[in-house]
Amino acid sequence: MIDRLILASASPARLQTLQRAGVAVSVRVPGVDESAVSAPRTADLVASLARLKAEAVERSLAGEGDHALVGCDSLLDLDGEPIGKPGSPDAAASLWRRLRGRSGTLFTGHHVIVVREGVSWARTATAATVVHFAELTDPEIDAYVATGEPAEVAGAFTIDGYGAPFVRGVEGDHHNVVGISVPLLRDLLAEAGVPWPSLWR
User: At the top level of CATH, which class does the domain 5-199 belong to?
Assistant: First the structure.
């Protein structure tokens, strides 16, 4: 019986989301070169990156018996442009001057692999959530950037941290904005014959 989920991601937010949902989860960080992946659309790009991460971890699990794992990747789409982690305070501030008062779509790719009795099952799916941003003032942008948070997260914002008051609303699964769509993950695991309650601690 599969009673634990392996998360192929280094994201603390994804781990905490699963733990808060009662899931028994362990982490295996994939060592992959994300810069080598390209795709014509943001939704396709996150799906490819999620699969790359999951498959990298799966290779390291060879011979470990029955298991379920999920790899994820998130990017904000603004005007058709995929936006990841800005990487610097200046880039984060510049991005926020584009985001304020507007809406973007946060895409998260999910690649699930379930191995049971030597048989492997895999699916990729993408969740999309529209995010409506507040009309920030320049001093608010500067103060937010000074926290260090926006430079290190996809799309330069969080919904569960310093950035929470700057998100006016979302259309879709709010968990997806944190980095993993729990309802979508439940559906994928159910398709593989892994009932969600079996993963509860």
Answer: alpha beta
| Phi/psi-derived region of residue 22, left when phi > 0, alpha when psi is between -120 and 50, beta in every other case | left
Which residues is 77 bridged to in the sheet? Answer: 82, 105
Report the 10 Å Cβ neighbour count for 168.
12
* Residue with the two structure tokens 């790359």: 52
Domain boundaries, the chain: 5-199
Burial of 55 (0-12, 13-18, 19+ CB in 10 A): middle
Residues acting as catalytic residues = 73
Distance CA 89, CA 166 (A): 17
DSSP state of 199: G
Q: Distances from the Cα of 60 to the Cαs of 64, 178, 180, in angstroms?
A: 9, 26, 22
Reported as a single tens digit per residue, the pLDDT across 35-93 is 888 899 999 999 999 999 999 999 999 878 899 999 999 999 999 999 999 999 999 99
Rounded to whole angstroms, the Cα distance separating 92 from 129 reads 21
User: How far is the C-alpha of 175 from the C-alpha of 178, rounded, in Å?
Assistant: 5
CB-based contact 106:181 (threshold 8 Å): no
